[in-house]
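Q: My collaborator sent me two sequences in one message, no labels, and asked for predicted structures for both. Can we handle them in order? The first one she listed is below.
A: Yes, handling them in the order given. First sequence, followed by its structure tokens:
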Amino acid sequence: MKKLFTYVLFLLISLNLAAQTEQKQTQTESQETPKQEDVYTKDFLTKFADTLYLEKENPKAALKNYEELFNQAPNDITLLESLSELCFVTNDKPCAEKYVPLYLKEDPQNSQALAFSAQLAWQKGNLKQAQEYYAAALKNGGQQNQNILMQYLTLLNAIDKEEAIKFLKELEQENNLLYLPINLEIAQVYLNQNDTQKALLTLDNAIKKHPQTKEFYLAKAKIYEIKKDINKMLSVYEEMDKEGLLDAEDLVKIGAYYTLQNKPKDAYKYYLRAYELEPSHPQACEFLSLWEQSQKNYLKAESYLRQSESFKTNPSLRVKQVHLLKLAGEQQKALTAMQQAYQDFNDSIEIGFYYALLLEDNKDYKQAGKVLEKLLEKQADNEEFLLSYAYTLQKTNNHKKMQKVLEQIINKNPKNDEALNFLGYYLVDQTKQIEKGGEYIKQAIALNPKNGATIDSLAWYYYKKGDYKKSLNLLENLPIKYKSDPEIVLHLAKVYQSLDDISNALKYYQLLLNSDEYGTQAQKAINKINKK
């Protein structure tokens, strides 16, 4: 930036000179030696200014431009500085060997020229000469240049770590404003020597002198973190807390470590403090949401989630929001939130699929089918989407298309037990192709013998064949968790009725009276039995 400012100023001053120079072009070409100011023409200065902006975008092109300019002004110190710098940036060693010595020759006391000479000597493996150049650079004002300081320190670390520490301590005495980077660097030098105790002692002394300087505590905590001494690391954060130095990020980090130590109550305290400092902090909001969910405070959990700054941009958080609203029994709010999420993230596969499932839960099978069709445009072979789509087709009585979709899944993946069971049950229950359906169901059983839904399908296959005892045996041996499923309860009632076990048939029909899907059917069956 300094270089840019200097040359822009020079450009403004020189424009008049350039104009005057152009006027003098009427002089005869027989003039043998042009004046120095004739070099800085308007075109020269414009090209230089353009090249300044080119340095970051295309350093090689900038280097070429500077070389062309230097051929016109071979004694220009600023051009030599730019050329030397870009030689190192582009890793062009022959270039550095050409221009760095020229730069030093033109200005032997220049700290930057000395520093570039040190770099060149370092590249050649002459560390002692590099050290001498850096020392000279620092003596000539280079202490104000942090890059030169850090390069020299890196060199000292490579050849003499004790000398590096001595240099840093002397530098701190000369310039107290550098106490922070210097003490941090001294600690790092000790760590590079695997002398953790001296590194910690350096930081402890720095903390005593400057108890409000947060960086020293963080460096100390980092050492304990690397050593995996979490208790000591946390004790450093407690020291920071006493000094009032903790911010939301620090509090979240402490909370995360307490979580790893399986101390959720301690973690909760720090996450809550982080939230109080920064109410939209993503990690704080999401932890507090999980905490309230674990306490079954679902609406409060949803509120924390909604306050996170990531809520508007993270589709996963929107899915979690809807899940929490469902757990809270707020089905309509969940649907409204999901509709909004679907509008906000219409390209999100996750949001689209969850929206379709929620529509199915709300028995809006037609709309669920439309959402799934859009998803299938993006992922035509996604078996999970296809199964859900087949379900919506079943519920909208489009059985022909449903069968095609299920066959598509099976043809692609003959080991998809869900599709095999789905198609098999449909053929057994709704068509005359009972044996074909039974084959599909048996294939599904072979793939997943403990799946209660498939066992129920096999029981229904035997029921349709009139083998009621075999059907009942399968249904009665189902795990208890499956026996609350309304469809399985209906099958048990019908099997018992077919076996003339009216008492058990009535018991299971009565369990279905409050069912939205099977209540009417159960009541009719009970009325029919009671008439006999």
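Q: And the one she listed second?
A: Here it is, processed independently of the first:
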Amino acid sequence: MAHRTAPSSARTRDTSAAGAPIPATPRPDVALNAPAPAASAADGSAAAALDQLLQSGPWTSQGQVKTSRSTLKYRCTAEFLPVVEDKLASTGQPPIAAVMCTAYQVQSPPGAPQRPVCFAFNGGPGSASIWLQLGALGPKRVVIQDDGYAPAAPHEVQDNPLTWLGMFDLVFLDPPHTGWALARDDEARKKVLSVDGDVAALTGVMRQWLSRHRRWNSPIYLAGESYGTTRGAALADSMQASGVALSGLILVSCAMDLQTLRFTAANDLPYALFLPAMANTSQYHGLLKGRLGTSPEAARAAAEDFAQGDYLHALHMGARLSDHGRRQTAKRLGELTGLPPDLIEQHNLRISDQLYFFEALRAQGRIVGRLESRVTGPMGANRSRAWEFDPGIESISGPYAMAGQAYFSQELGIDLRAPYKLINAEVNKGWNWNRGDAQGNHFASTTPDLARAMRRNPHLKVLVASGRYDLGTPYSATDWSLAQLDIPTEVRTRLTHRYYDAGHMMYTRTADLKALHHDVGAWLKA
């Protein structure tokens, strides 16, 4: 159970006006200068709310956290920075959105070299950065049980001795319409709630933060989780193009290639790539027999071997596969997942994520969690297959929401009345996945951006972290994406992939929080 932390001893509020931004050079296919339509009453209200946000804060506080090596004294600054359309900021147009930046900077002695800065963000799209901030990186942490289930209320933050503050100063970014951040009007929302518009906006905000806080001499790192890896891969290239040479990129629970994750017609890739994580999960829940059930390693190895060979062949053959081949494939899939072979044949040898969630533990009346597959939830009495909630995220969203809201207001002194939006489903629903001139019938992908950034910058290192019990962005799908990066062997030596025995937010498990912290430290020194 988390214990209550004392309020910050020193807290001040700076009400000075927001400074002028230094915008990034946007991609040519991002229409940052398109004319805006006539303002509606709703747009006027949104614009007033945005202007009020940009005039508020910054909120500053002081704190300290004890790690295994030292006691770190830090200053926290929470502020809203504007997103602007005009590349040269010469026309006087108002900002189209605001991004919230919550920065923790360790107080260094005079004359010391500038510390590295790590910009961190979550994904969704539509998710605020609270998960990384209060889960693994920041000086405070929300504690979840090691088995992935939520503890009972009250939910509070506690000191995090495994904070990354010993390695970097940390800046957490909440993009528009996450947390408290907003866009000016409907036209602005359309611009920033898109793959490329989001990248252009955050590139400008990060450059602006570096100027405002005089940190251009610091080594710069990015850390993204989930869709934050989609974003982070593209940002690595965008930042390079705008004059910021990154020192490193940390990708937690990768989602750079949407084709590997979407179970749609004529896309057989996810059926093979999800299988090892499903086998790993089935072994955990006691669904596998014989040698496969003896260890997660045995289950994963067998599933990886089958997925990369006979199963891919069967999927490719389709109706051309013989009856004997179908029966053998269904039998082996049943052995690897615990699902009945007859059910697998009824679904044309294709086990989607939804099929697995509802059928793996149907006999027990349980639904398997998506983002944390060690966690399960009860089905309704009618055993419906309607996806009403993800047990894997429900177990942590409540504790993070309640502890986070209290921390921001009581510890950091942020006096905004609106609720902090951890996950904005409307952002996710309205997200524009098209890139450049592409429209429809394609899958968003930012691995080409990452490959290009790694080829352009000989000092850019990449660390990838995957949870083996993640059925949202499975580790084996990430293996595939990394293997497809268009980089030569000598560049690939700067790419590291590490694995953990929990789900999407593997850091909620204490052993993996420690392992991730150790791996980041070792990666920095390598």
